[in-house]
Every structure is written in structure tokens, then in C-alpha cells.
Amino acid sequence: MREERAKRAAPPAALLRVSNRAKKLCVIGDPVEHSKSPLIQNAMIEALGLDYLYLCQPVPRGACARWLECAQFAGYAGFNATMPHKQELLPLMDALDGDASLFGAVNTVCLRDGKAYGYNTDGEGFIRALAAEGIFPAGMSVLLLGAGGAAKAVALKLAQQGARRVFVSNRTEEKARQLCAQDPLGRLYPAGFDRESLRALAAGTDLVVNCTSLGMEGTRGQFEDFSFLGALPQDAAVVDLIYAPAETELLRQAARRGHKAVNGMGLLIQQAVLSLEHFTGIQIDPVCVQGAVEAALKAG
Prior knowledge:
This protein is of the alpha/beta class. The chain folds into 2 domains: 2-120 and 267-299, Leucine Dehydrogenase, chain A, domain 1 (Rossmann fold, 3-Layer(aba) Sandwich); 124-263, NAD(P)-binding Rossmann-like Domain (Rossmann fold, 3-Layer(aba) Sandwich), CATH 3.40.50.720. It is 39% helix and 19% strand. Helix 6 (122-132) packs across helix 7. The longest helix is centred in the C-terminal third of the chain and has 16 residues, at 265-280.
């Protein structure tokens, strides 16, 4: 019984191998305890043999400036940020990369020589995940479902990467119009989310991207109708940013109709890899860490 208790109380093996010189990383948010980032990042760190430790740090809304001072004083190498801090961090950075400026959001901060450098890995992570599946958006017509923060990063990055046009379909069309108005290239177009609109748009679509939470594990929301998939050209691909479950009903319905169906696991790994590359300054082959990440997520 005593041995069994000891096993249950034992910390993860990765923590036992941390040296006193390990560089600290973390994810901040409010709330943040649900974040998978520590699982993912520590799995990659262990797989690569890096001397880093990735933690979870709750930071209340409005306290980013105070946290930044604390992180620099405590010697953090950097941190990731989730809601509601992505916009709050923008004016606190000493420098921003192009995507952080374009999206108006920071999700990765590197701390070097007393300065804070802000990045956003969502858009590039999405493009890398597409490329890994043999999907290249240049010249494509895209039907993008949703108009939230994830949709904004994906839509603007698709336009930047040469997509011919991106229809942003949202139940509240005004929100779609607001997103499209932020596109400097003029390739984003607002659209409705009703059955007729989706079917009409699908007929000329090369790629469908779901950026909504419909079909996500633990939520009740689901697509009311999948008939628009029947209007897609046969070679069109369907991508869902959701990774849990691994196959949403949208992807199941798309696969049944013969379309390439891709979930959000690739994006999850690619954006995490990009963050770790920024933190460490080394290039990482996602293939080398994918197995470790998937195993960690399954166990966690």
C-alpha cells in the first residue's frame, strides 16, 4: 500500500531530470490550468534533450505588465500567452514580428538582455501543418468557418500566402465583415453561415477550414447541416482546427464523401515547435517530436 501511494505521488519523470541551470519557460493565461502547453513543451524538451523546464503560470487579466517584470527578474527565457493576454501584451513588447503586428496578438514572448520580443506562431503553424499534408494555399479559393481569434490568424495568413480569395463565413456576418476589413491585401470576403450560403460557396472551394468550436470534445455545439460538403469539388480538402476528438463529425462526413480530411493536431504541434524554436534559437524537425507529443497528450 505504501509503495502504491509513492507511485501515485511521484512527480513526472521529466521533472526529476531538471538541472539547477535549467532555463524556465511557461504559459500564462486567465484561466490557464487547462492548458496542454506544459505537456506538449516538456515532451518536446525531453525528446530533444534540452535543459529547459516549462511551467503553467496563472496571470490575472490586466496584470501582464507586472508579470513581465516578475518574469525578467526571475530569469525566465520566455513564455507563451493564451486568452485574455494576447492583445494586452502588444504594447509591452520591445519588438514584434510581422505576424504579431498583422494579427494584433502575441502568443510567444522571448526575454533576452532585458528586452521582450513578441511573436505569433498561429498563422505560420497553420501553414506548416498544411504543407505537411501536401496542401499549399497559393491560388486557392478558401471557405473559412468562424470569425474569432483563430479564424483571424488563419484567414490573414492564407491571404498573405497567396490564397486567391478567402470567404469568412460566420453566423454573425458583421463580425466576419470586421475581420475582412483588417486584410491589407483585399482577399477576404464576408459571408453568411446559412445552408444556402455554404452550399453556394462550397461549389467553388478548394479548401474548407473550420475555425469554430462546433464538434469539439466537451462542447454541445454541432453543425446543423453537412449538405454543403456535397457541393465541394472532389479534390477539395477539409481541415478542422479541432484535435479532440481526432475525427470530428465534419471530418467524418468529409472523408465519407472522398475528401482529404485533416484535424488540428498538426497545427497544435507546429505552433508549439515554432515557439520552442524562438525560445531556444535551434531548428526543430516536427517529425522528431510528434510521437512524444502525441504520447504525452494521450497519457495526460
